[in-house]
């Protein structure tokens, strides 16, 4: 889970003890966008924004990715980020097939997704056959130094299972700011909500009265699916329109949108 440490300016020193969990005995540190390593052990931000640490753990190692995030500008891919993209084309042979996935509003406009990089895709017969225009929910597994493009995977790296990754069928895709995407992902767990004084995200507030599915991409895209187009559009509107509202104004605006939706469906 990603954790926001605080706001930094270019040149501010980043103390490692502020971003590494205290329980981590032998941490692995990975630098993401907006950071610079000056040997031997100095790390500096090179742009203003929110200093963010994302920690992933396995039974043997714990890796903390440090990056500087802000609400404006284009998305810069970083390892472990979840993204929503659109399949543009397929290339390669039958045994080693790959997809080019478009990542709008990104400094890397497309990524590479192997046909084998899905859960239960060990053999060619079980691999998905994605057509151009297919929307996928993926994770940035690595950055290709040769191609300068992110390498994507559609499974949970800890369990090897699908865990919501893969083709997103039906629904609608909409754009939001990269800052809003970051905040929605930060508040997507009970622990994060508790750290935010118990305040729920707009998605959780909507979920109290409406039934829908949602996927949030770190690249500033959301996918929403429900049993009606009207509900899907209402959810997208609520998320987009409440970005800069106070918490109480957001609750009031969501209640108004839900009330109008329910009235129109009678």
From TrEMBL:
InterPro entries: Exosome_RNA_bind1/RRP40/RRP4 (IPR026699), KH_dom_type_1 (IPR004088), KH_dom_type_1_sf (IPR036612), NA-bd_OB-fold (IPR012340), Rrp40_N_euk (IPR041054). This is Exosome complex exonuclease RRP40. It comes from Myxozyma melibiosi. Residues 171-227 form the K Homology domain. Residues 30-74 form the Exosome complex exonuclease Rrp40 N-terminal domain. Its main location: nucleus. GO terms for molecular function: exonuclease activity. It is found in: Nucleus. The lineage of its organism: Eukaryota, Fungi, Dikarya, Ascomycota, Saccharomycotina. Keywords: Exonuclease, Exosome, Hydrolase, Nuclease, RNA-binding. Coiled coil: none annotated. Pfam families: KH_6, Rrp40_N, RRP40_S1.
